[in-house]
């Protein structure tokens, strides 16, 4: 076995890796329908699937993190609310009454173990500003040395600036860091920049080689094994 530098830092994607949405849907958040119907009680509910699809298309088409008000307006237009009141938009953008995301059950034990091993950690996420505060509310913010957030940086993965910020926060070189995401294309992009990478596919039934895992627990053996290669 030929030694190489061990993994000293892990850069985590957020959604699908560390957290899942309360209510089972990422966008719009779980209280979208109730807020809109409080202002428009005669809302045509049959239009909701089309509105949600239009909103997702808007998000996917954005080069940088989409403006939240414009995202909500896109869905409201499909719901035949062409001139939403400022109050409605403000309520849709205001913090939810309760958590909108929650950690997967395997997250805290794995983060605890990585911290015990001296592995440094950051978050690299295509997300709106405020994710760090959300993680603080979930009591997991303290595990991470920093957050590379697309809305703040003005770019999205696979833009190299996202990955570079994640490793800069750790004070480590790319080859010392492992990037984990649920999107294999974003992992591949990181690898072309010199990072080590692994894909987390929580819906797969079994592990696929060394580069695709199905639970975060498997990351521990990956981090340990990446310290050497044949």
Can you describe what's shown?
Helix 2 packs antiparallel against helix 3. The chain is 39% helix and 15% strand. The protein has 230 residues and is an alpha/beta fold. The strands form 3 sheets. A 6-stranded parallel β-sheet has the order 6-5-2-7-8-9, sandwiched between helices. A two-stranded antiparallel sheet has the order 1-10. A two-stranded antiparallel ribbon has the order 3-4. It has helices at residues 32-39, 48-61, 68-78, 86-93, 107-116, 131-137, 150-153, 160-170, 184-192, 218-225; strands at residues 2-3, 9-12, 19-21, 101-103, 120-125, 147-149, 177-181, 196-200, 212-213, 228-229.
Which oligomeric state applies? Answer: single chain
Q: Specify the CATH architecture of the largest domain.
A: 3-Layer(aba) Sandwich
CATH homologous superfamily title of the largest domain: HAD superfamily/HAD-like
CATH class division of the largest domain: Alpha Beta
Count of all domains:
2
Features:
Rossmann fold, 39% helix, alpha/beta, 6-stranded parallel beta sheet, 230 residues, 10 strands, elongated, 2 domains, two-stranded antiparallel ribbon
Quick synopsis:
The protein has 230 residues and is of the alpha/beta class. The protein has 2 domains: 2-21 and 100-229, Rossmann fold, CATH 3.40.50; 32-93.
């Amino acid at each position: 076995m030929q030694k190489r530098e061990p993994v000293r830092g892990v850069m985590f994607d957020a959604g699908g890796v560390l957290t899942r949405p309360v209510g089972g849907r990422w966008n719009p958040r779980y209280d979208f329908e109730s807020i809109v119907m409080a202002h428009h009680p005669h809302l045509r509910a049959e239009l909701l699937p089309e509105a949600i699809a239009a909103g997702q298309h808007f998000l996917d088409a954005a080069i940088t993190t989409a403006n939240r008000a414009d995202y909500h307006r896109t869905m409201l237009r499909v719901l035949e609310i062409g001139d939403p009141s400022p109050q409605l938009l403000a309520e849709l953008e205001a913090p939810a009454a309760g958590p909108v995301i929650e950690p997967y059950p395997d997250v805290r034990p794995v983060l605890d173990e990585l911290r015990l091993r001296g592995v440094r950690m950051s978050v690299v996420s295509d997300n709106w500003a405020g994710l760090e505060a959300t993680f603080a509310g979930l009591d997991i913010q303290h595990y991470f040395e920093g957050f590379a957030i697309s809305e703040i940086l003005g770019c999205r993965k696979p833009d190299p600036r996202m990955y570079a910020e994640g490793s800069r926060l750790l004070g480590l070189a790319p080859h010392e860091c492992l990037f984990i995401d649920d999107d294999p294309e974003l992992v591949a992009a990181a690898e072309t920049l010199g990072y080590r990478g692994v894909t987390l596919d929580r819906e797969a039934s079994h592990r696929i080689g060394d580069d695709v895992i199905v639970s975060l627990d498997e990351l521990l053996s990956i981090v340990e094994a990446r310290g050497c290669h044949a």
